[in-house]
Amino acid sequence: MKRYEERTTIDAQAGTVYDYVSDFTRHGEWAANGLTVTKDGEGPVTMGSTFSTTAKQFGTQREHSTITALDPGKAFGWESKGALGLVRHRFDLSGDGPTEVTKSAEFAEPSFLAKITGWRLKKDVPAALRSDLEKIKAHLESTPAASSS
Hints:
Layout: E1 2-10, H1 14-21, E2 36-39, E3 50-56, E4 60-71, E5 75-82, E6 85-94, E7 99-110, H2 112-116, H3 118-141
């Protein structure tokens, strides 16, 4: 299992950061490759809720994601199954304005494709995590209510 993580500090309350990153349907606002997210079914998001995602990278990539962690103000996580296998994603938050945000991805059950492109993933995944965090930070720090929530 290969795990990657990056972190940043965001000048916003932990609850505000959590509300943004745990709104799975908004991940396309900051994720790369034209990500679109659709909730499977109706009702509130709970542990075990599922989502379908599509991104454009080396063709169309479809994944199925399941929420695995919902700890308001502290952690949000999900598992995705797709071309790269089973990948565990997670945000961990600490502090409360400013908030330290850690974003991680762990290849729990890498597919054959993930194994043969591991050299590329080793470079691309940390860069993607950093990019995601930079976009999240820019969005939240430009929102007037972010620091005063």
